[in-house]
Predict the 3D structure of the following.
Amino acid sequence: MATLYRKYRSQRFEDVIGQDPIITTLTNQIKLGRIGHAYLFTGSRGIGKTSCARIFARAVNCLHPVNGSPCGECEVCKKLAADNVDIIEMDAASNNGVDDARDIREKVKYLPVACKYKVYIIDEVHMLTGGAFNALLKTIEEPPDHVIFILATTEPQKLPQTILSRCIRFDFKLVPTDILAKHVARVYDAEGIKYTPDAVEEIARLGEGSVRDALSVADTIASAADLITSDIVLKLTGAGDSGAIAALFDATAERDLKAALECVDGFAKSGKSINAVCRQLIDYTRNVLVCKSVGPAVASGLINADRATLDRIAAAAAKCAMPDISNMLVELGSAEAGLKYSINPRVYLETTLVKLICVADENAELLKRISALENSANPAEQKKNNQVKTTSTENVSAAPRDDREKTVTPAKSEAVFASEKSVKAAARPAKEYAFDEPPPPPPDDCPPPPDDYSFVAPSEKPIAKKSVDKSFGAGKPTQVDRADEGEFWHLQATREDGLELLGKISRAVRRKQSPAALRARRLLARDVMAKERDEYIAFVAPEDAFLPLGEPTVMQVLNEVLDELGIAKRAKIERTEDDLYADDLKRAYELFGRDGVVPKVTA
């Protein structure tokens, strides 16, 4: 007895499901007599490419086609029902050489024996070699009038453009789950197999849009019991229950590591396939993402909720943030690819869940500590404002610089400095260069430093000599640091304390609720310092945050915040002194060698 997918293979165009636009076009071509000389059928596995090619080959030769389909009653249809020399079906996976292509080229000149057209169906055509494609190129472009080529492939991107441009292309789509469920139900009814509606829906979902895969699963389960239920389908296929998948997603989203590992343990003890569980978790996460994007009112028509209710998906979408959902999809997608080669899939999936949950907790802890640093500056600002209120404007303007600086000094306590140092140590990667070493002496031709500044090594404390600007944040002395000497010279002028200015900007960004503001806030937490320059406000970012912080949407948020704070200068992104110094060392080594000797250039 043949398997279900062979027994119920489509024999007419009316039997093909889920490909209505393609079927309509092919039947109209037969009715109107507009037959092409070469066709290309592309699409995923098991969705009807080869079946449509066989039906089309019989329909173009049928003496009395019915609505574009072969009648099955005429003399030609009866001859084509068995093996016939006029319809040649070739597997390009095993006949992919140039000799096979030359054999086709030599035989196309012979007329068909009993039909009007001689049809060549070449399946998996992408497996042909380059020489075979070149041998068939002219034949496919201008075949004899009695020859039709039908090429079928799952990977059209591997075909040469010279072949693609000579064919009429039809892209077959995956069959929707509801149509697949109805088809499986019809097959079970024809076979006299009893089933529940949930069972055929689960079989259709496991088919993943492929008719052949769905019927293969249905054939596997057909003899399992007198009544096919969804529980039997889940047990035999190793797939996880949708309710348990929803529980696993909720545990991951809520960062409950114990509950997530217990869910995986339940799947393993019940014999579920970890690969299938990962795929179902990805599908469920995708459903939550769609529901989060378009809303639960529209998601009912877009999401295949399986057995889980739409209300549960909508509730999960309401609780989760969009970046967290997208991060879960990225990590789970990587896990799905890695599970194919893992010898212990359970450990691999558990490691991915631990990474998702613990990394999220670590990021949340860093954000809390940054917020604590920002809030710690509030009492100092309040104290400064109270002092300004008790002093007249004239006294403030006439006060010496040292007195004004004393009102700002409490903004950073020893605890704040300790917290800031711990945050930087947790976020900053290990350095490759020893920046504490003193720089080498400058070359003889190096210009002397200006009189207004003193140049010191990055590891030393900068010494202020003169302050000339009275613009925003002018209460701080101007300082200039040197990262390297000679050709590699970087100047840095700071007027307002970096952490104090960053705190003002971060609090203003926090008040905004847009996605761009949320991204800007998270990027500022990556060890970014704000410094006031002569012509702009510099955001000194490490290498991992340099490019993301320079995105147009993030820069727009930063400039809007500067406008709200009354700062006319614009935002600009700079790299850290450590990164600049590292680049300089690398460039100096490339130019002068390890010992400072310029390599000899030979002609």
User: Anything to note?
Assistant: The chain is about 55% helix and 10% strand. The two ends are 80 Å apart (CA to CA). The CA atoms of residues 137 and 163 lie 7 Å apart.
